[in-house]
Design a protein that fits this description.
Layout (H helix, E strand, L loop, with lengths): L2 H18 L4 E6 L6 E14 L5 E11 L11 E4 L5 E10 L3 E8 L1
Antiparallel strand pairs: 1-2, 1-4, 2-3, 3-6, 4-5, 5-6
Length: about 110
C-alpha cells in the first residue's frame, strides 16, 4: 500500500473513532450540479484565523472532508449534517493534502 492509500486508511480509522466518541459527524455532501453522497466530516466551529502580525483576527467555521469519500469537493457545495440537518456551504479552500480537504464555510 502506498503513502496516499495508507494516509487515507488511517484517516478513515481515526474519523470512525471520532464518530463513535461524538467528535465527528455523518453528513451528505451535495456538489454544485451533481449527485449527493454520504460522508463523514469534522466541523470546527471556532477555528482561529490570524492577522498580519500573528494576532488572532477572529474565528470561523471550517469543515474537513475526507477525499476517500468526497474526491473532488468544490466551492458552493453543501454539507448537510445527518443529525439535525445543519447545513454549510463550502466557501474557501483552507487546506488540501492527500487525504483531507478543509473548507471555510458559510451557513446555508
Amino acid at each position: 500500500m502506498g503513502q496516499v492509500a495508507t494516509l487515507r486508511a488511517l484517516d478513515a480509522t481515526i474519523v470512525g473513532a471520532f464518530i463513535d466518541a461524538g467528535m465527528a459527524d455523518t453528513a451528505i455532501y451535495a456538489p454544485p450540479g451533481g449527485d449527493a453522497m454520504p460522508c463523514k466530516v469534522l466541523v470546527d466551529r471556532a477555528a482561529q484565523f490570524f492577522g498580519d502580525v500573528g494576532e488572532v483576527a477572529g474565528r470561523r467555521i471550517v469543515v474537513s472532508l475526507f477525499l476517500s469519500e468526497v474526491p473532488s469537493p468544490a466551492r458552493g457545495g453543501v454539507v448537510t449534517l445527518t443529525d439535525g440537518g445543519e447545513q454549510f456551504r463550502l466557501h474557501e479552500l483552507d487546506l488540501l493534502d492527500d487525504s483531507i480537504s478543509r473548507w471555510v464555510v458559510t451557513d446555508v
